[in-house]
Structures are given as structure tokens and as C-alpha cells.
Design a protein that fits this description.
The complex is a heterodimer. Chain A is mainly β. In chain A, 0% of the residues lie in helices and 54% in strands.
Chain lengths: 110, 112
């Protein structure tokens, strides 16, 4: 069973808009939550990550929001650009195996 | 630095054939991983190696074997390929923790 549930499966956003991807987990042993970005034909690449002792982390146009009590976290892509079109995976780590969500395909239209 | 390299990039096999996917990393990482990626299922861990000389099963190990040849190289072997093994295979490595993995470019495998 998938230990990290990710939604939506896909989303289309206009250039300049905000893309929001949500993830939820059950295992409270997870203590590191990375997001990976994957372009077609390439391997995933680490984009941004957060630890559960902070509620928000921002790097450029990418922000992770983390709600420990709800066991949910989300990725916000501000001012979305066509170059952001990719598949995004959330993940969770407990110094064991990394558990991935199913992925969200983001398409940014010009 | 090349990072994580994988060979081959593409492969077509007939059912029952065998093959080995090669992976090498030049970042001196201790841990290495093999994943398969299928549409709508994310990345599923096949096998991993936390350090040279050790290997462990992941979520979907059936039909696969691995060898951690040395610190740099981690190979994945399909002994008798099946159509259900048609997938894109990724190798990855990490140093500090599993959450910070570096992925190779992938091998697209088709089994007919």
C-alpha cells in the first residue's frame, strides 16, 4: 500500500499562476520530506526538502508547507513558468527506505 | 563529475531472456538503489545497498537480483525477463540520508 498519498494526479495551470500539490502520510516515524522534479526522459532530481520541526520552507518560487498534526505537506509553485512543466513527486524518509508518492504531472500553458 | 550513469539507455528483450543493467556513481556515496517507474505508480524500490558488501530487498524484488560490485557500481539482473518487467529503471545513490538521492538517467526496458 502507498505510504504517501499524493494529489492531484495531474494539473494544468496558466503561466503566472500557482500550482499546488498535496501529500499525506500515516507513518509518524517519517522525519524528512523531500520533493523531486522529473522532466520527460530524465531521472528525478531533488528540488526542495523540509523537516517536521518547521512549518514552511521557501526556495525561490517553490515553497513547502508542512502540517505535522494533520500529517500533510504540500508544494506550491508560485508564478508558474512553462519550464516548470514536469512531474513532481513528494516523498518521506525515516532513515530507512524513501517512500514516494505516485506523482503529479504539471503542465504550464503559455 | 558524471554523477550517476546507467547503461544501456534502451533495451528490448524477449520473454525468458536475461540481462544486467549497470549503474555507477562517482560521488563516493555509500548507499545505492534500484527503482522501477511505471505510469501512475511512482517510483518503487526494487533493491538497495546501504554500503559496499550489503544488499537488501525493497518493495518489489521478485524476479530481480543485484550485485554491489564495489563502492561505485551496483548492477541489477533480470534472470528470466517477463512482460510485467517492462518499465523504466532508475539507479540512485545517496550519502547522508535516503531522502537526498541522486538519480541516473534511466534505462527503458521493453519485454515482448
Amino acid at each position: 500500500q502507498q505510504q504517501v498519498k499524493q494529489s492531484p494526479q495531474s494539473l494544468i495551470v496558466q503561466k503566472g499562476g500557482i500550482s499546488i500539490i498535496n501529500c499525506a502520510y500515516e507513518n509518524t516515524a517519517f522525519d524528512y520530506f523531500p520533493w523531486y522534479q522529473q522532466f520527460p526522459g530524465k531521472g528525478p532530481a531533488l528540488l526542495i526538502a523540509i523537516r517536521p520541526d518547521v512549518s514552511e520552507k521557501k526556495e525561490g518560487r517553490f515553497t513547502i508547507s508542512f502540517n505535522k498534526s494533520a500529517k500533510q505537506f504540500s508544494l506550491h509553485i508560485m508564478d508558474s513558468q512553462p519550464g516548470d512543466s514536469a512531474t513532481y513527486f513528494c516523498a518521506a524518509d525515516s532513515w530507512g527506505k524513501l517512500q514516494f508518492g505516485a506523482g503529479t504531472q504539471v503542465v504550464v500553458t503559455p | 563529475n558524471a554523477g550517476v550513469t546507467q547503461t544501456p539507455k534502451f533495451q528490448v528483450l524477449k520473454t525468458g531472456q536475461s540481462m544486467t543493467l549497470q549503474c555507477a556513481q562517482d560521488m563516493n556515496h555509500n548507499s545505492m538503489y534500484w527503482y522501477r517507474q511505471d505510469p501512475g505508480m511512482g517510483l518503487r524500490l526494487i533493491y538497495y545497498s546501504a554500503s559496499e558488501g550489503t544488499t537488501d530487498k525493497g518493495e518489489v524484488p521478485n524476479g530481480y537480483n543485484v550485485s554491489r560490485l564495489n563502492k561505485r557500481e551496483f548492477s541489477l539482473r533480470l534472470e528470466s525477463a517477463a512482460p510485467s518487467q517492462t518499465s523504466v529503471y532508475f539507479c540512485a545513490s545517496s550519502e547522508a540520508r535516503p531522502g537526498e538521492q541522486y538519480f541516473g538517467p534511466g534505462t527503458r526496458l521493453t519485454v515482448t
